[in-house]
Each structure stands twice: as C-alpha cells, then as structure tokens.
Design brief:
Length: about 400
C-alpha cells in the first residue's frame, strides 16, 4: 500500500515497531535501540522500540501491545516531523496500534483513516483471549474509544459494518475496503521452489500463512488423517505462528506422514511454492466473528490463479463460491474438507486450471490493487478537503 501511494506521487512515511512477528524475538539486525530509521524503496520507515512478543501469549503478548502504545505516543511526534494530510492506520491486530496515531492526530491536526482487518473485541472472545465479563467490557470500551477518534473506518469485509456502526461510528463514515494481494502473486512464478518436495504423481494441498488459533489446524489435521490411507494425497503447511509447536506435536503423535511442515519462506519465494501445489487451502475456525471475515490469504490465492479448497463460513465461503475458484465446505467440517480435496484430486489438470482462472478473474474484478488504490486516494482527498473547509470555517468565525 505504501509503495502504491508513493508510485502515484504521494509523499508517504511509515511509523511502526521493531519487527518481531511471528517468531517472537527481534529479527536479525534489529534490537532495542537499532535501527530507528530505515529506507524502504525511497519511503522513510521509523521504528519505535517495543518489548518482543516472545511466545506470543498471555503476559508477554499484553506487554508487547502495551509497549508499542507507550513508545508510539512518546516517539511518533519526534520521528514524524512532517505536515500530514492524512494518517492511515493499517489495522491488523491489535487495535491498540491505533492509539499512537490518535495521539499524533492531536499534534498534526490530520484526519485518521482506520482500516480494520480483524474485528475487535469479537475476535478476542472467539479465541478465548477475553473470558471475564470485566475484560470484555474493557475491550469494548477500548474499541469504542479508538473508533470515536477516527474520521473514517475502512472494513475488509461487508460483514464488519454492523459491528462498527453499533459502537458509535456513523454509517456514512464506514466504507468497504477489502485487502488486495502483493503484485508478485499476479505475475505467477518464474520457477518452482527447491525448498518444497515435489514427487511426481502426488496431489499436493498447500496451506500458506499464519499457523495460529484462528486457522483451525485441528480440522486441517483431522482432514489429513482421513486421507492418510491415500499415499498420493499430501498436505504441505508453509508458515509459522503460535500454534506451530502444537501442530508439529500432533503430526508426530498421529503419525501423519502425509502432512509435511515446511516452515517459513520469504515472501519473494511464495509464488514458487504456490506453483508446486495442486490446490491452495484456506480455513478459519467455526465462530460467528470468523464467518464475517475474508481471510487475507484468499486474495493472494485468487490472484495467483490456482484452484482453492476452503473450510469457511459466511463471507469467505461466499467469495470462493461466487468466484467459482474451487471447492468449499463448512468451517470445522473435517470430513467435508477431506471430500473437497478428493473431488479436486479427481479432476483433470485442465479442470483445475479453469477453476484457478475463474478465481483470478474474480480477483481482478473485486480486489485488484490499482482499483482499490483509486478508491483509497479518493477518500483521502475527501478527508483532506473536509479538513480544509473546517479550518477555514474556524478561522472565519474568529
């Protein structure tokens, strides 16, 4: 997104933290005091110090979230010295990341656009992070505070709209803004990855992305177990996350020789990894909040033009069905997922290619990067114009 705005001639600066996700410790070359500033293809990137996530649970995760709020409020005004027209918050979890932007808004007098990728506090409740009534009430109050200080809320799924409006945001200030995919996925792969086993005659199911609680690996492993008697069906898992150790232990305990854990790969290598798969797997837990969500990896899958197999409810299932990109079953349905994989395996290569091309056409019509950037910049212009009119009105009334 930063590159897309920069390519259009906008001046972009990024304020973020020292990278530590998903491994839980600082990336090589980063630490408490370094680096403070980097250059990303001509875009200045300012990095605030934080407490790393470590194992990514409980106290450590809470300290990680809180540390960015504190350091962000302290350092953002000194690092971000420019005069800004709009402050854009890229709203992955946690929503507390918006608090430094709210603090910066007060000093820069610039409107805030908040993009919501995970719906809080519903996601916290679905994952069991918030169980006590007082904690749920506190999380709800925090979300309302953040929404109240934003000028526009952008939601990645139309299913998010009612939740946002119910927490005090005027409906006219909520707009649908889905995620897109990195351009490298649309270009396909120049060559296959050498880091992924490629045995002739095997049908390879690929899960790529975060290995977390929301992705429902219990269902994935159950489905893999139901196809374990078929040696030609292989389940490849590429990625890392807080559930990685549990998944590895379960694969070993169940003796799932048809399930391969391939670890993290750099983004640039993923088209080559995708190219070796016969279908791409996307799953979410069965929960009302996840039925409102479009998983971020789905856009990358569609963009690449490969057949999709999904265990999803609601919005995510709708996208796969509407696009005609592959097979869908209900979230949490291991038998249905195994059967969906078998149906894809029974198809000819030409039939699966047709599914992939349908998905790619759907991506171009609904999630294409330049189209979404057009939409975003028009909203930014509107917010900037509104701010100028408000300032002029204030000056005239004095």
């Amino acid at each position: 997104m930063a590159l897309g705005l920069s390519e259009r001639g906008h001046e972009v600066e990024v304020f973020t933290a020292k990278p530590n996700y998903p491994g839980g410790d600082f990336f090589p070359g980063y630490g408490w005091t370094k680096p403070w500033r980097e250059d990303f293809q001509g875009i200045p990137v300012y990095r605030a110090p934080i407490i790393p996530r470590f194992a990514g649970r409980g106290r450590h995760l809470a300290l990680n979230y809180l540390s960015f709020v504190i350091s962000g409020c302290l350092f953002a005004p000194f690092m971000c010295r420019g005069k800004y027209d709009v402050i854009f918050v890229y709203g992955t979890s946690p929503i507390t990341a918006a608090i430094p932007a709210i603090f910066l808004r007060a000093t820069k007098r610039a409107p805030i656009q908040l993009q919501i990728l995970d719906l809080w506090p519903e996601t916290l409740e679905a994952l069991g992070v918030v169980e006590k009534p007082w904690a749920a009430k506190l999380a709800d109050g925090l979300v309302r505070f953040v929404y109240r200080h934003c000028d526009q809320v952008l939601v990645q799924s139309k299913g998010f709209v009612e939740s946002v409006v119910s927490r005090g945001v005027p409906r006219h200030a909520v707009d649908y803004f889905p995620t897109t995919a990195e351009a490298l996925f649309s270009k396909g792969a120049s060559e296959a990855s050498h880091n992924v086993p490629n045995v002739e005659g095997q049908f390879k199911v690929l899960f790529a992305g975060n290995v977390g609680d929301a992705q429902d690996f219990g269902t994935i492993l159950d489905a893999a177990e139901k196809t374990a008697h078929l040696p030609d069906i292989v389940w490849n898992i590429v990625g890392d996350g807080r559930r990685s150790e549990w998944v590895a232990a379960e694969v070993a305990r169940r003796g799932l020789t048809n399930c391969r854990l391939l670890g993290r790969h750099p983004l640039e290598a993923m088209p080559g990894v995708f190219a070796q798969a016969d279908c791409l797997l996307v799953t979410l837990k069965r929960d009302p909040v996840f039925s409102l969500t479009i998983p971020g990896k789905l856009q990358s899958y569609l963009s690449f033009g490969k057949a999709v197999v999904a265990a999803l409810d609601g919005e995510g299932a709708r996208v796969v069905t509407e696009s005609g990109a592959g097979e869908v079953c209900a979230a949490g349905d291991a038998r249905g997922l195994a059967d969906a994989v078998l149906r894809l395996a029974a198809m000819s290569e030409a039939e699966r290619q047709d599914l992939g091309q349908r998905g790619k056409a759907y991506f171009n019509a609904h999630f294409e990067r330049e189209m979404l950037l057009d939409r975003l910049t028009s909203w930014m212009s509107r917010l900037t114009l509104t701010k100028r009119k408000r300032n002029q009105s204030t000056q005239n009334s004095r």
